[in-house]
C-alpha cells in the first residue's frame, strides 16, 4: 500500500529544467531586441548605410562556423560550462558597445569586433542548452517532447514580444537601452545556468581532449552518416529551409506590395505567422501526447499542410484571408522543431550530441541564403504566382517522395533502453 509520504519522497526534481528554460527565454528575448536595435544604433551613430551593412555582416559571420566549432567544445567541456561561457562572452561584448561609445569612444573596427564577439558567443548557446535538455527532463519526470516544445518556443516568443518592445524602447530612449537589456539578459542567463543547473554529464576525458580538434569536428559528420534517420532528417530540413527561409524576406514583401496593394500589410502577415508559430510550438506539448504521437507523420503532415497553404496563395486572396493563411502557416510550422529535436536526442549518443546538433543546424541554415537568391531570381523570371506555385508544389513532391524513405520511418522507432541513471542523479544532486 502506498503511503502519503511516498510520492513526495520520489517526486521528480524539475527546478533545474525550469531554470534552464528561463535562462533560454531571457537570452532569446535579448536576441530579439538586438535584431532591431543594433542596425538602428549603427545607422544613427555613423550615419552610413555601408557601416550598417558591415555591422550586420560582423554580427552574422560567426553563424557560418561558430556553431560547428562550438559543438566540439560542448562535447569537450560539457553543455553547462559552454552555455555559461557563451552567455558571458555575448553579454560582455554587446554591453561594451554603448559603454565605450559613451566614455572613451568607439571606432568602427572595435564596433565590428564587439558585434563579432557577441555573435560568436551567442551562436553555440542553443546547442549547449539542447545537450542539457534530455537528462534534466528525465530527472524531472517530464516528457522529452514537452521539454523540447517549451525550449523551441523561446526564440519564437522572444521575437514576438522582444521586437515590438525594442521598437518602443527606441522611440522612448533610443537604441542604447536595448543593448544594455540584451547584455543583462545574457549575463543573468549565465548566472542562472551556473547556479541553478547541475552538470548533466562529465566533461570529456583527457584522452578525448587530446584528440585533434579537426578529427573531433569531422566525427560529427561520421555520426550523421552512421545514423540514417539523422542524415535523412538533415537532408529533409536542408530542402525545406531552402524553400521556407525565402518566404518572409523575399516572397511576402512582394506579395504584400503586388497582391495586397501596400507594403504595410507585411507587418500583419509576419505578425500573424509569428502568433501561429507560438501557438503551434507550445501546443505541440499536449498534442504530442494524444494526437501527434508519430514524429514521422507530424513532420510529413505539417509540411504537407504548409505546401497546400502556400499553393492557396497562388489564388491571390484578399488581405483578411491572406492573414489567416499566414497564421495557419505558422501554426503548421510550430511542431516541427520540437519533433525533430526530440528524435535527435533519442538517436544521437550524448558524447557527440553537441557536434552532431551543431553540424546539422549549420547544414540546415546554409540553405537559407541559396533559397533567398533563387526566390529573387524566380520572381523576376516567372513572376510571383509562378514562384508560389513552384515552391508550394515542391513541398508536396518532397512529402510524397519522403513517404518511401526507410530512414525517416526510424523517427518512430523507440529509443534504446537508457542506462541506469542513478549515478548521474547522484552526481547532479552533489552539484
Automatic annotation (TrEMBL):
Transmembrane stretches, by residue range? 17-42, 54-74, 157-177, 183-202, 223-243, 263-285, 297-313, 319-340, 352-376, 382-403
Membrane topology note: Multi-pass membrane protein
User: One GO molecular-function annotation for this sequence?
Assistant: transmembrane transporter activity
Q: Where is this region: Disordered?
A: 412-431
Q: Which domain of life is it from?
A: Bacteria
Keyword Transport present in the record's keywords: the answer is yes
Provide the alphabetized UniProt keywords: Cell membrane, Membrane, Transmembrane, Transmembrane helix, Transport
- Localization of this protein: Cell inner membrane
List residues of the Major facilitator superfamily (MFS) profile domain. Answer: 230-431
Q: Name one GO cellular component term.
A: plasma membrane
What PANTHER family does its record include?
ENTEROBACTIN EXPORTER ENTS, INTEGRAL MEMBRANE EFFLUX PROTEIN-RELATED
| Name this protein carries in UniProt | Multidrug efflux pump Tap
Amino acid at each position: 500500500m502506498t503511503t502519503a509520504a511516498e510520492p513526495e519522497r520520489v517526486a521528480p526534481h524539475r527546478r533545474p529544467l525550469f531554470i534552464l528554460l528561463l535562462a533560454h527565454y531571457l537570452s532569446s528575448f535579448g536576441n530579439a531586441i538586438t535584431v532591431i536595435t543594433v542596425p538602428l544604433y549603427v545607422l544613427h551613430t555613423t550615419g552610413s548605410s555601408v557601416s550598417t551593412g558591415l555591422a550586420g555582416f560582423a554580427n552574422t559571420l560567426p553563424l557560418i562556423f561558430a556553431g560547428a566549432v562550438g559543438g566540439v567544445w560542448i562535447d569537450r567541456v560539457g553543455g553547462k560550462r559552454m552555455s555559461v561561457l557563451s552567455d558571458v562572452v555575448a553579454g560582455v561584448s554587446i554591453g561594451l558597445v554603448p559603454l565605450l561609445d559613451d566614455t572613451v569612444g568607439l571606432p568602427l573596427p572595435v564596433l565590428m569586433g564587439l558585434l563579432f564577439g557577441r555573435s560568436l558567443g551567442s551562436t553555440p548557446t542553443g546547442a549547449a542548452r539542447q545537450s542539457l535538455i534530455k537528462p534534466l527532463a528525465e530527472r524531472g519526470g517530464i516528457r522529452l517532447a514537452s521539454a523540447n516544445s517549451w525550449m523551441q518556443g523561446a526564440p519564437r516568443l522572444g521575437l514576438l514580444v522582444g521586437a515590438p518592445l525594442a521598437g518602443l524602447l527606441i522611440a522612448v530612449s533610443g537604441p542604447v537601452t536595448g543593448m544594455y537589456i540584451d547584455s543583462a539578459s545574457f549575463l543573468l542567463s549565465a548566472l542562472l545556468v551556473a547556479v541553478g543547473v547541475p552538470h548533466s554529464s562529465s566533461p570529456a576525458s583527457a584522452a578525448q581532449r587530446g584528440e585533434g580538434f579537426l578529427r573531433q569536428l569531422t566525427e560529427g559528420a561520421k555520426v550523421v552518416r552512421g545514423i540514417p534517420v539523422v542524415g535523412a532528417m538533415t537532408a529533409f530540413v536542408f530542402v525545406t529551409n531552402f524553400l521556407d527561409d525565402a518566404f518572409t524576406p523575399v516572397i511576402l514583401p512582394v506579395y504584400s506590395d503586388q497582391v495586397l496593394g501596400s507594403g504595410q500589410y507585411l507587418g500583419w502577415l509576419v505578425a500573424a505567422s509569428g502568433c501561429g508559430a507560438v501557438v503551434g510550438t507550445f501546443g505541440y506539448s499536449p498534442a504530442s501526447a494524444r494526437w501527434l504521437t508519430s514524429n514521422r507523420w507530424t513532420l510529413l503532415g505539417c509540411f504537407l499542410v504548409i505546401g497546400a497553404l502556400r499553393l492557396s496563395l497562388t489564388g491571390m486572396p484578399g488581405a483578411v484571408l491572406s492573414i489567416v493563411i499566414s497564421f495557419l502557416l505558422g501554426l503548421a510550422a510550430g511542431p516541427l522543431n520540437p519533433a525533430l529535436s526530440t528524435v535527435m536526442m533519442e538517436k544521437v549518443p550524448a558524447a557527440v550530441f553537441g557536434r552532431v546538433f551543431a553540424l546539422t543546424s549549420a547544414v540546415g541554415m546554409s540553405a537559407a541564403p541559396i533559397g533567398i537568391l533563387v526566390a529573387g531570381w524566380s520572381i523576376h523570371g516567372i513572376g510571383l504566382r509562378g514562384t508560389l506555385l513552384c515552391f508550394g508544389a515542391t513541398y508536396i513532391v518532397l512529402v510524397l517522395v519522403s513517404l518511401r524513405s526507410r530512414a525517416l520511418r526510424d523517427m518512430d522507432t523507440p529509443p534504446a533502453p537508457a542506462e541506469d541513471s542513478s549515478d548521474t542523479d547522484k552526481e547532479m544532486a552533489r552539484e
